Each structure stands twice: as structure tokens, then as C-alpha cells.
Amino acid sequence: MIWAGVGLRADASEAAFADAMTRAGRRPDALACLDSKVTPALLNWAKAEGLPLTHLTEQDIAGEQTLTCSPRIKARFATGSVAEALALASARKGGYRARLIAPRVQSACGMATIALAERTDT
Predict the structure, then answer these.
(1) pLDDT in tens, 15-26
(2) Bridge partner residues of 98 (DSSP)
């Protein structure tokens, strides 16, 4: 199973999410986003794609070791990449180990970011 962590700006469109997912190169089985960042556009896109959306908190992703690191994100969220941390934290639910498939990717417009993770001990 593949989990996608979704990072976004408040005005990200459904097209931005679709573009980021295409750039990620694989279709996930489920999505995760920070509960404070969920928007109607994200909810609509997830529903249209038939993908369940998990809401995580900042505490859920704090301390996750990511492949990329933004100093601004590190200072704000205590992790290097929100999307990568979301993917890892959601894949780890239930006590599993997980790994990122690749570094995060951004939509062409820069409004949406997706990172993919999978469990390593299923």
C-alpha cells in the first residue's frame, strides 16, 4: 500500500493536486494531510480520485526524518518536509516501519506537494 503525504498552500486547486500526483509517478492508495490545512479543493480532489484522506496533526509529524529539508519548514513543523513526514507518519500507523519512495514533488504551479511512502514490514 502506498500513502501520499500532501502539502499545500491554502489556494491550491484540484488541478494542482492532480499535477503533483502525476509528477510523483505512482498512484497512492490513501492520502494524508495536516488537519489544519485541509481545504475544500483537497476534499473534492480526494473524493473524485476515490482516495481516503487521513487528517494528521503537527504533533504526528514532528521529528520525522525526511529526505529533503527546508529550514523554514523545520523551524515551523519540527521536520524537514511536511509532505514527506505526512507520508511516513500515515504509513507507520499501527506500528509499522515505512520508507519514502522518493523525495517530495511539487506541482508546476508550486501550490501542491506530494510525497509517497510504503511500509517496509507488512
Answers:
(1) 999 999 999 999
(2) 119
